[in-house]
Specification:
- The relative contact order is 0.04.
- The radius of gyration is 38 Å and the shape is elongated.
- α5 (74-85) runs antiparallel to α6.
- It has helices at 3-7, 16-35, 40-48, 58-68, 74-85, 95-111, 118-129, 134-145, 151-167, 170-186, 248-266, and strands spanning 203-205, 212-214, 217-219, 226-228.
- It has 306 residues and is mainly α.
- It has two domains: 3-167, no CATH class; 203-258, no CATH class.
- β1 and β2 (212-214) form a beta hairpin.
- A two-stranded antiparallel ribbon has the order 1-2. Strands 3-4 form a two-stranded antiparallel ribbon.
Length: 306
Amino acid sequence: GLDDYVLQTVPEPADAALAKVWHQERAMARHILRTTLMEPKTISLLKNNGWQMTEKDPKATFDLVEKTIHTTGRINAAQMVLEFVQLRRSQFDSMHSYITRLTTLKTRLSILNCSIPEVGLMSVLLAGIKDSYPMDYNRWCREFDQDLLHWEDFIKQLTRIGNSERGDLRLPLVETRKAKSNDHARSTSPNGNNSVERPRKERVICTTCNKQSWSNLIHHDKCGKHIPKDGQCYWCDPGNAPNSWRHKKSAMDMKKTTTATTAVISNNTNGPMTPSSTTPSSNLLFTGNFPLLDHSPSSPPIPDFY
C-alpha cells in the first residue's frame, strides 16, 4: 500500500509498467503526507531543519518529521481517530477534498500503528456520506453487508462521483451569479438606494395537484390554477384582470366557452328525447312524424324495427 512508501524505502522496479505504477503511488504518498504539513509553523520548523518543498521521497520527509516534531504520539493519534470518525461529506466543498482528508488521517493512523480495521473504515465512510447521498446509501449498505464492497473499490466509486460533480460545478456557479445579479437589480431603486429585499421564489411541487409551481403561489380549488396567496384569481374573473396580464385573452375565451356550454346543458335538463316546456310542440323533431313515441297506456305498442 501507500504506507510502504512512507515507512520504508521502496526501490524502483526495472519493469517499465511497474515503474510507472511505482511513480504514481510514490507521488500519491508524497501528496498525502504534504497535505498534513500545510500549517505555516510546521513548514517553517521543517525548513529550518533542512527540509525542501521539492523533496520527492516521502520517507525522507517523514523521517525528518519524526525527528523534528515531537508532538506526534498517542495523544495526537487519539485526536486523529476522533476527527476521522466525525468526518462528513457536507463539511467539505468537494468530494475530492473529503476523500483526501479521509485518506490522510487513515495513513497517519497507520504510521502511528493505530490502524483501523476495514470494517471500521467502511462504517465511518458510510456514516460520512449518508446525509449527502441518501439515494445511494441503502444500496452501498447492502453491498457492504454482502461483502461486495471494500475500501479501495468504494474510494474509486466516490472519486468518480467527485469527478462528475466537478464537471457540473461551473453551470450552477454561473446561474447563481446571474440570479444574485438579477436580485440585486430588482431590489435597488433607480436612484441607487436599496429597497426592501424581496423574498426569493422557488420551484416547488403543489401538494394538491402534484404539479410544479412557484413557492409564492397557492392552488385555487375552483379553477385548478395557481394564484398569488393574497391575490385575485384572474382565471375565474378575467374581466377584472389588467390588460398587461398576458393570459387575459385566453382566459376570456375560456370563460365564454364555459358559459356557453353551461347554458346549453342547463336548458336541456329534461333529456334529449323529451321536449322542453318552452319549445312549441309543432317545432319538435319526431313529434309530427312519429306519434308512436308517445308512451301513454292508450298508445299501441312500439313495433320492433330490427
